[in-house]
């Protein structure tokens, strides 16, 4: 037993208090809670920090802004006098000039200044000797061309008759057929004539032989006559023999001629060509006659233009020419002389050219009622604004406004001085029950930009800190402080970009450097 005790190692039962006790059980942790969840929390904090400090890292355009100038509109009762301005009475829309349509020298003036005339009434006459001669020459040429037309018409009628009834071709064809028949008859009778001539030749030869055998029983004269008859019979035979090829050749030629005439009668080539030429000559003659007629009309028009007539019914405003003066005529290429003869105007259509101060221009509207006073009338007369010009007078610091005169009295004349009182027009704004005046928005005129789509202005979006471009509708004219009224497109809380707007675009990030106020 002692031996077993000595073999036990009691050091294994000792406990080491310096090292922690490791548990044999290990807790298995998920990769989702170990890596993904902490990483997501970290990314969220980084994104939140980047969003909070984005203005420090992202580039932004430095700008200055100014608020919209807001005022209360003063609503005036319709017909209330707004302001007064001086002007001059003139024809509406402009004076009318009676011009010479033809060049020439004035022979006589038929009207005087202030005279009432009707449309088409003569106002002056020009020397018309050359025009009368030109008319006579044109009429003579027209008569000659009409004769040419009649001659061409006669030739055309003859050509149509020839092609409808070609008698000449029919006669030629009949003659050719007659000669062909005659040649054919002679050719058919030739064998019989040749046989008769040969018989006559045989008889003449027998007669000569008998008489030669008779010796001195017959006289020499009878023998010579018999020999002469034989020679004649032989010649006749020879002639008939030689005539056969000639007749056949003649027959062939006549047959070809007949066929050609028949084909020509069928085609009518020459007659068709003659008809086409006659039609062309008739067309040429007709066109020349028409040209001559137009020259006659031109000469008549030129002669009629030797009398200058009034283009309207109205009153003579001024005499622009005098007797003996050369007129170049309307449309003349020469620069010498003028074509104006008389200045006219319609007394029922007058207007006032008013010089309105620039500070009063915003109160002017098209159709606005006015009152016109002149020294020639005991009481004002009514009128209305019809247009506002686009060019201002720099020296007088005014802008011209055109005011139509309603039913102008006969005593009113152009170039009379007048004083125009502009009245308040009907206001489209309906007052609220509280009686507050409507708001009017003004912006510096220099901030308004012109583009193809209209007027626009750069506005700072303070919420998104970006630049926006808004389309606006502005009023006419500017105030003394350089402001223009914005009728539509802005709200009172908008901030206008003043500096830096040249380099911004739609959606550009902006940083407001300062916010100066615009004093009206």
UniProtKB/TrEMBL annotation:
Gene Ontology CC terms, in alphabetical order: cell envelope
Domain CusB-like beta-barrel: residue ranges: 354-423
Transmembrane feature ranges: 32-52
Predominant place of localization: other
UniProt subcellular location: Cell envelope
PANTHER family assigned to the protein according to its UniProt record, in alphabetical order: BLL5650 PROTEIN, EFFLUX SYSTEM COMPONENT YKNX-RELATED
Protein name: Multidrug resistance protein MdtN
Source organism per UniProt: Bythopirellula polymerisocia
């Amino acid at each position: 037993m002692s031996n077993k005790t000595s073999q036990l190692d009691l050091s294994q039962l000792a406990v080491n208090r310096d090292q922690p006790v490791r548990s044999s059980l290990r807790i298995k942790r998920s990769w989702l809670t170990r890596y993904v969840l902490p990483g997501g929390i970290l990314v969220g904090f980084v994104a939140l920090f980047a969003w909070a400090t984005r203005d420090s890292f992202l580039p932004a355009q430095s700008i200055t802004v100014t608020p919209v100038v807001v005022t209360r509109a003063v609503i005036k009762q319709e017909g209330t006098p707004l302001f007064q301005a001086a002007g001059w009475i003139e024809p509406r829309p402009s004076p009318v000039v009676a011009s010479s349509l033809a060049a020439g020298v004035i022979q006589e003036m038929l009207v005087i200044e202030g005279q009432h005339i009707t449309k088409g009434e003569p106002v002056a006459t020009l020397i018309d000797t050359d025009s009368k001669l030109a008319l006579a020459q044109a009429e003579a040429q027209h008569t000659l061309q009409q004769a040419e037309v009649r001659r061409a018409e006669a030739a055309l009628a003859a050509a149509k008759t020839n092609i409808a009834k070609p008698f000449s071709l029919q006669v030629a064809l009949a003659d050719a057929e007659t000669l062909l028949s005659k040649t054919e008859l002679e050719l058919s009778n030739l064998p019989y004539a040749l046989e008769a001539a040969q018989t006559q030749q045989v008889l003449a030869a027998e007669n000569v032989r008998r008489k030669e055998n008779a010796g001195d029983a017959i006289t020499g004269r009878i023998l010579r006559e018999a020999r002469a008859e034989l020679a004649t019979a032989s010649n006749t035979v020879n002639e008939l023999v030689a005539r056969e090829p000639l007749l056949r050749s003649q027959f062939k030629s006549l047959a070809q001629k007949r066929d050609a005439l028949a084909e020509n009668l069928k085609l009518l080539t020459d007659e068709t060509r003659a008809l086409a030429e006659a039609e062309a000559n008739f067309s040429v003659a007709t066109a020349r006659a028409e040209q001559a007629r137009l020259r006659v009309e031109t000469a008549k028009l030129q002669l009629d233009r030797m009398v200058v007539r009034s283009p309207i019914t109205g009153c003579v405003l001024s005499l622009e020419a005098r007797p003996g003066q050369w007129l170049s005529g309307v449309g003349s290429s020469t620069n010498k002389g003028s074509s104006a003869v008389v200045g006219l105007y319609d007394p029922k259509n007058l207007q006032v050219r008013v010089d309105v101060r620039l500070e009063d221009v915003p109160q002017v509207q098209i159709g606005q009622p006015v009152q016109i006073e002149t020294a020639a009338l005991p009481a004002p007369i009514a009128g209305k604004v019809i247009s506002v010009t686009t060019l201002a007078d720099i020296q007088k610091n005014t802008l011209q406004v055109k005011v139509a005169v309603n039913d102008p009295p006969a005593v009113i004349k152009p170039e009379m001085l007048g004083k125009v009182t502009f009245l308040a027009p009907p206001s489209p704004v309906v007052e609220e029950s509280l009686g507050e005046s409507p708001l009017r928005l003004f912006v510096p005129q220099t901030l308004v930009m012109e583009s193809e789509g209209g007027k626009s202005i750069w506005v700072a979006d303070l919420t998104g800190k970006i630049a926006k471009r808004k389309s606006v509708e502005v009023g006419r004219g500017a105030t003394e402080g350089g402001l223009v009224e914005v009728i539509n497109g802005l709200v009172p809380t908008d901030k206008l970009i003043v500096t830096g707007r040249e380099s911004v675009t739609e959606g550009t990030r902006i940083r407001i450097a300062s916010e100066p106020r615009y004093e009206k």
